[in-house]
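Re: How this chain folds, sequence and tokenised backbone to follow
How to read it: Take the token row as a discrete description of the fold.
Start of record: The labelled sequence and token lines come straight after this line.
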Amino acid sequence: MVTETPAPESNGAARTVDAKPMDKVADIGRDIGEYIRQQRNNAKISLRQLSKLAGVSNPYLSQIERGVRKPSAEILQQIAKGLRISAEALYVQAGILDLPVGGPVPDAIRADTELSERQKQVLLDVYESFRRENRAVNPTEPTTAESEPEE
């Protein structure tokens, strides 16, 4: 991975350097922390409330949200329970699981920040049930991956 950083010896001009592996880990920690904070804000609960609901100490949860600490899968599961979202959503965000295969509709549903994780999952389930029904009625129709235009 290549990143742009200001050269220390210059007057702020950017130079290209290889990112260190630990920088990548820090980026993942920041990403999951930002995602958790966003979900907490969407749920309209305080850091202290989530700490109690998840059974995670307030300082540790704060460090996770700030990207200082990278939580384990077990901690993510506790946080997901406190937020009432799927642990899978946090695992994907943290890079523990790969993003489920999609297409334009599932990707748009997952990207919508105004929907809760539960609402997204319900929409995805309904969408997939319609697609399964249509494939059963007309099995010669191509699947999503086959019908998507190449870019």
